[in-house]
């Protein structure tokens, strides 16, 4: 864990500043997920976090800077640690991604993010960072076996399937569907099929 | 083309009513895509459509009813007409879906929709209808060759890949990536691989 803020400032000099920073950003994400974009104002976030408005205004000079920092925190999503078996690792990474959608309400945060990227240009960089981090393990796992358009296609299919189910179907895919997604993606690589039940 | 409104009312009795209905809903979608959710109010849409506020209020008793009808229009997206060759048909349907994202700004409308489904319960049914229509041809093409979890997985992967690229990468996939998406999905079905370049 690093004590640097999302803006690159070294806050390790004062642990109270680090704690304030973390508390406020956690509250900002909570307000964003529970109440939506319009509610993420500095006074509202200060109240939810239990800090004074003055403190929040001192750390974040604009509403946009607070929102950008809150989304940047989202990029620290958990990942599965690869074990070496490609099929198992992809399935476990998809399940970890699904858990983040459900438990951390990543689906809700992404919905708010993609809606407002059109009107808040600062969010483009945040979205790109979040996507790069979200896809990182999938790409790393696939790089030894796929390349070029196929690598891009497989990454979009794996990550997109979970995103599409969560955002557009309103529920993430079940275990059997995740296994099928990975097996269809790996099908051409000549891997053994799992035994029929 | 039918003269029935999205709410099931038969408006065939008066073509002027049909025209007003169409003009206003087209304007509502335009405002939604260009200016975002907050701007879709009946006075703003009336001004953009060139009708009086009174006319718009008479057709849509609430702001939500206007928004729901506007999204419902989106479900009439164009589709590729299947020719019988599975690989070609899937690629053409994916390209049609991509064109709709780009030219009709379906990506932008979907971003607004998924963001507000959490707070406007009436939008859940609209989203479900839109998704069912969007996936209809893909499912129909895949049904003869896949079933159960595999059919669900392949549908999520194909539609999700285009959605993920458009919403999260900020640009839809290129032709080569779309071909790879379809080839990876069909790989296990023992189809011939395209010749190497």
If you had to describe this structure to a student in words, what would you say it looks like?
- The structure is a homodimer of 197-residue chains.
- By secondary structure, chain A is an all-alpha fold.
- Chain A has helices spanning 15-35, 42-49, 53-59, 63-74, 86-103, 106-116, 122-142, 148-168, 175-186.
- The longest helix of chain A has 21 residues, at 15-35.
- The first copy, chain A, is elongated and about 60 Å long.
- The N and C termini of chain A lie far apart (43 Å).
- At the A-B interface, helix 6, helix 7, helix 8 and helix 9 of A face helix 6, helix 7, helix 8 and helix 9 of B.
List keywords for this structure.
homodimer; 197 residues; mainly alpha; 9 helices; 66% helix; elongated; disordered N terminus; disordered C terminus
Summary, kept brief:
Chain A is mostly helical. The first copy, chain A, has nine helices and no strands.
Number of helices of chain A: 9
Assembly status: homodimer
Strand portion of chain A, in percent? Answer: under 5%
Order of helices and strands of chain A: HHHHHHHHH
- Radius of gyration of chain A, in Å, reads 19 Å
Q: What share of the residues of chain A lie within helices?
A: 55-70%
In total, how many beta strands of chain A? 0
Largest interface: A-B, 50 and 50 residues
Main beta sheet of chain A: strand number and arrangement? Answer: none
**Which secondary-structure class do the elements of chain A indicate?**
mainly alpha
Q: Are there runs of chain A of 5+ residues with pLDDT below 50, and where? A: 1-6, 191-197
- Which term fits the overall shape of chain A? elongated
Taking all residues together, what is the mean pLDDT of chain A? 89
Please report the distance between the alpha carbons of the first and last residues of chain A. Answer: 43 Å
């Amino acid at each position: 864990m690093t004590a640097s803020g999302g803006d690159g400032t070294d806050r390790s000099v004062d642990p109270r500043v680090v704690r304030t920073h973390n508390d406020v950003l956690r509250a900002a994400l909570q307000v964003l997920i529970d109440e939506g974009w319009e509610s993420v104002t500095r006074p509202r976030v200060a109240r939810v976090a239990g800090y004074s408005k003055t403190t929040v205004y001192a750390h974040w000079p604009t509403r946009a800077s607070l929102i950008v920092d809150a989304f940047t925190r989202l990029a620290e999503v958990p990942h599965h640690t690869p074990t070496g078996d490609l099929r198992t690792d992809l399935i476990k990474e998809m399940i970890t991604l699904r858990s983040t959608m459900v438990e951390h309400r990543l689906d809700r945060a992404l919905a708010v993010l993609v809606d407002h990227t059109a009107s808040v240009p600062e969010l483009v960089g945040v979205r790109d960072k979040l996507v790069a981090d979200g896809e990182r393990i999938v790409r790393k796992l696939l790089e030894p076996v796929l390349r070029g358009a196929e690598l891009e296609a497989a990454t979009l299919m794996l990550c997109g399937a979970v995103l599409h189910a969560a955002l557009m179907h309103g529920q993430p895919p079940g275990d059997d569907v995740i296994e099928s997604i990975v097996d269809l993606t790996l099908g051409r690589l000549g891997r053994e099929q799992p035994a029929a039940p």
